[in-house]
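The instructor's notes for this session suggest beginning with a concrete chain rather than abstract definitions. Hand out the sequence below and ask the class to guess, before any prediction is shown, which regions might be ordered.
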Amino acid sequence: MRKILYLEPVGGIAGDMFLAAGVDLGVTPEAIAQALSGLKVPGWKLAVSRAVRHAISGTHLDVVLDEREAHPHRAYSDIRQLIEAADTLSPRAKERALAVFRAIGEAEAKVHGVSIDAIHFHEVGAVDSIVDICGAAVVLDLLGDPEVYAAPPPLGSGTIRVAHGNMPIPVPATLELLRDVPVRFEGVGELTTPTGAALLKVLARIGQPPPDFIVERIGYGVGTKDFKDRPNVLRAAMGRAEARAEGLWVVEANLDDSTPQLLGYLLEHVLGKGALDAWVVPATMKKARPGHVLSVLVEGGKKETVVDTLLRESTTLGVRSYAVERTALERDWVEVETPWGKVRVKRGLRNGVVLNAHPEFEDCRKVAEASGVPLKQVMAAALAALGPGR
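After discussion, reveal the predicted structure:
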């Protein structure tokens, strides 16, 4: 079953609003705190309360520190070490949190014209921001690792004072983070923070409508501010996707800029995702360029997973798909004795009659290598042992 999480930054998004929306969906603050307990940062706790913005009730969350840092400055390498050393975080949560911090670091480096190693996080390096970002990765774990989609975020306007002085809204890092994705230039004040922008950019598909899904839970993460023109809430709808695609499908992509290594990886990867078969055929593309057609045979329930894998992992800009019918032989396995050992043979039957038989390659290879005989002799002996009636 595919789980879907759809985020609507009605009044913007910040790290604490993401955590609050997760709690409003049913994730317990205790579970979040337990998963974050391995972070070697100063004392903190989650303070959760109910709040209302424009008659919408939801969850408000604060990261309360025992003793706030006056000037929090942390390099990307420092934060990476903190996260990697946290033994209570799952590998997937670590991967997501590190990706978010790297995205922020790269954006800051671009804005300031320096390398990421020269960047020292200020507001985002504070304990509360570290908890927000790592907590967001934990929330996705606790929600069952859903596919995340998000509506374009509103950015706000005006100016804000940060560690570098007065800055325009959206601050440069926020705008850099949201390059190449749909956004809305509207609202007054800072609606989308750099942390919120990074969470959306790394964890969600911004501006891409989610697949049809059944909404099962709705959560509202309430922010600190109270805007006049909109409720300062992040709405999160959680549910399951409807399986509409039935039968068998062929999903294809034309590739004219892929290396042999990438093609081989893609074949193995889609098969690991549940594809029934996958193959690559040489082709001549536009302008007489040599290329390949990658085709995948997949059941309808796993079609979207394969489509998403090809779009994410290959160099293609699009895929096509079409329904197919397949007539398949019944299959079974029998074990036969060869002069060098036993091997399995896969048989294809129709109405109880054996039409095809193929010795299992790995069995034959092991026997051949152990006995020092040619592989082809073992395979021939296996078919002979099967007998004329197969």
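Then share the key points. The mean pLDDT is 90. DSSP finds eleven helices and 20 strands in the chain.
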